[in-house]
């Protein structure tokens, strides 16, 4: 992201889009890939040592690994995945016997294809993840696929990951198939079916794989092959079976305390944009349907930003209705504050509505229009935090916003301490119930104290804000391309001073913005 330097002396930190590449260089990507391939090769060496006692037997096992799709990705650790995948019944490559002259050749051939499969798994499971970042996460996880998946969830601050268990399970069914296709597995469907069978009897499968040793009896391999030959469970019977594999990954490798970043904010920015998109969908659902397209649409798309002293959804609604009321006056007219009752919009017709670019708005709020206001809101949020706390850059401010659910009230504890305390109290009462119904959540700690941790980190590193709230709201309005930045800044300060805690306490009970605004105190 580009930090715009304002003309003249100023403490504003205004961020705007930049087309500069934020990803690793080709040399760094090649180094990461080489190091990851070395870890995968080490897993193949361990698998060969457990399956073969001498060089002649090792050559035969290597041929079977290469010809039968013995890749290192699956739901267990890499070595166990290789052993299990080797004995999955599937068509064999007849050319493998000629190509696979030894263990090193088999490891090199399958290792590269395994890497491609794991990268495809992660990019399919996390649509915002690019290949070079997937390689970096796999390197941190020691080439363990499920551990890498958990690291991504933690690092991207995906606090609501697993709130829909069936959606996660469906993704865990589709991603392995995509990985098998990318690795050119001889039978991707059979591969997925075998792992569904393993997940349904995971403890038994782990026990059988643990018995596979260099001098173990052949009965352990026969029992493993017998398990892999069984048909996969039916869809209804397999619900919840993948959860055990997800939880088992927690015990294999501890999550890193800090994930080294390389100033790549693209993925975090997309996650934050996705969260902001959810705020706008909630706001659209709360706005009166009859007046949405005829009265509020232009104001929503032009000035209905989600930053402000309230929660994001309330900010969108209040900013939209305030902008609608002001649209009847010239933008450069004097600012007047409506009372609570005068916020109820009149029901008179407004004529054709345009988007400010000469295009007449239709009866549907378009996706491009929403994306534009969502992106502008994101830059407003980040610019607010970076202006208040100069030690924050775009990347760190984005992470703070993700931890605080996109709320400036929780990101900046000095914005409104009373309202922030009330919000945290509400979150604490709801937290146990949410965790009880989120078994897929990662054990990271930020699920419990996200609202507190981000704010504390901002304060302790700089001992208070560097600028006033007035300047921060000015930076937010400027970065968000508000039609009248000065008026919007003054209005935000007015809402903070008169309505903050009252609106915060009543917004949950409000069935519509009209009802919400009528209970606010007049100033």
Describe the structure.
This protein has 523 residues and is mostly helical. Mean pLDDT is 76; it is low at 329-361, 443-454, 504-512 and 518-523. It folds into two domains: 26-252, no CATH class; 266-330 and 339-518, no CATH class. The protein has helices at 26-51, 55-67, 78-86, 96-99, 103-125, 131-140, 145-155, 165-182, 188-200, 202-211, 218-229, 241-252, 266-286, 289-303, 312-326, 367-388, 394-403, 408-411, 417-436, 446-462, 469-479, 485-498, 500-506, 513-518; strands at 2-4, 14-16. The radius of gyration is 28 Å and the shape is elongated. It is built from 24 helices and two strands. α5 (103-125) runs antiparallel to α8 (165-182), α14 packs across α16 (367-388) and α16 (367-388) crosses α17. The longest helix has 26 residues, at 26-51. It comes from Panicum virgatum (Blackwell switchgrass). Residues 39-151, 274-411 form the PIR2-like helical domain.
State the end-to-end distance.
39 Å
Question: What percentage of the residues does DSSP assign to strands (E)?
Answer: under 5%
Task: Tally the beta strands.
Answer: 2
Secondary structure class reads mainly alpha
Radius of gyration: 28 Å
Mean pLDDT: 76
Q: Which regions contain 5 or more consecutive residues with pLDDT less than 50?
A: 329-361, 443-454, 504-512, 518-523
The helix tally amounts to 24
Determine the fraction of residues in helical runs and give it as a percent range: 55-70%
**Main beta sheet strand tally, sense and closure:** 2 strands, antiparallel
Provide the number of structural domains.
Answer: 2
Q: What is the molecular shape?
A: elongated
How are the strands ordered across the major sheet? 1-2
Order of helices and strands, N to C? EEHHHHHHHHHHHHHHHHHHHHHHHH
